[in-house]
Write a structure and sequence with these properties.
The chain has about 325 residues and is mostly helical. The protein has two domains: about 40 residues; about 240 residues, MetI-like fold. It is built from 15 helices and two strands. It has a two-stranded antiparallel sheet. The radius of gyration is 30 Å and the shape is globular.
């Protein structure tokens, strides 16, 4: 190499090896990717802030005010909560909701698990039966189904005639009796067992058949195989369904309001027979225009559901079995 070429090579800027990015370029690339990600997430972020987080913060403020939707909120401190605990209708709504959760949720899960066990057997027409049993979960929460349900359980309807003919019981329609209307709501939620059934069925598909065969060879009957093999292995799925359906049961509103609406001149059933918590919250907020009191009720419901959820997570250590052991 001549001296002139050597000097030129020495003064020329160093070139980066092929495929090598400088740190500054890598940082700019990452910033561009992050910006694109936030851009795609922006509709969800805006919806969350405007439709969820914002109203939650506002309702927390309203819970400590006297607010009727027309006048400016007036700060009253804990008066809404004090009045709430002394309100007999509020206590009735708590009792009705707890009864619905404690009775309706186990019956719904039992029906879902029972049908899932039947559908887990090899037989013809499985796809049809799965779709047929799942369909009520898609339409069960609709207003039209609640209207039909109210008609079925009304006075002199098919259910009233059947129980009068078969059992000699003259109730006069479940929706018109304060002691029976809650049973119609429980029957409606049990009828909608399709969603937890599908989840149970997915869990049952993961249980190894070899375990059942080995247990059968050792003389274990159907009940023992179910109790000692099926339940422990699907306990995570069972926990998920219990948690999800319990939260849903606390939030019941549409079916209770429609089935019990107008019965006995009450928006929530005759003699408050279907006065679930959210129905009374609706009455206070939109019929009585007491948004402050309704906001306080909403936050009490949130705290109650959070407490029940915490108890369920604590209890799973005793009965939920994961692959690496209980958690």
């Amino acid at each position: 190499m001549t001296p002139s070429k050597a000097a030129t090579a020495a003064t020329a800027p160093a070139r980066s090896p092929a495929g090598f990015r400088r740190p500054g370029g890598a940082r700019r690339g990452r910033r561009g990717e992050n910006l694109a990600g936030y851009l795609f997430m922006s509709p969800w972020i805006a919806g969350f802030l405007l439709l969820t987080a914002g109203p939650m913060v506002a309702s927390l403020y309203f819970a400590f005010t006297d607010y009727n939707l027309f006048d400016a909120p007036k700060w009253i401190g804990l008066d809404n909560f004090t009045e709430m605990f002394g309100d007999p209708r509020w206590r009735t709504s708590v009792e009705v909701t707890l009864w619905y959760v404690v009775v309706g949720t186990p019956l719904k899960l039992a029906a879902a698990l029972g049908v899932a066990l039947l559908l887990n057997q090899k037989r013809r027409g499985q796809a049809f039966y799965r779709a047929a049993f799942y369909a009520p979960s898609l339409i069960g929460a609709s207003v039209s189904v609640a209207v039909v349900w109210k008609a079925i359980f009304s006075e002199d309807a098919i259910v009233d005639r059947a129980q009068s003919t078969l059992f000699g019981m003259d109730v006069g329609g479940w929706t018109g009796d304060p002691d029976w209307i809650i049973y119609s709501l429980v029957a409606l939620t049990v009828w909608q067992f399709g969603a937890p059934m599908v989840i149970f069925l997915a869990g049952l598909k993961q249980v190894p058949r070899e375990l059942y065969e080995a247990a059968a060879m050792d003389g274990a009957g159907t009940w023992r195989r179910f109790w000692h093999i099926t339940l422990p292995l699907i306990s995570p799925v069972l926990f998920f369904n219990v948690l999800l359906e319990t939260i849903h049961s606390f939030q019941i509103f549409a079916s209770a309001y429609i089935v019990g609406g107008g019965a006995g001149g009450n928006a929530c059933g005759p003699a408050d027979g279907s006065l679930v918590y959210t129905c009374y919250l609706y009455v206070q907020g939109f019929e009585n225009s007491r948004m402050g009191f309704a906001s306080a009720m909403a936050w009490m419901l949130l705290l109650a559901v959070g407490l029940v959820t915490a108890v369920l997570f604590w209890s799973q250590k005793r009965w939920v079995h994961y692959e690496e052991g209980p958690r």
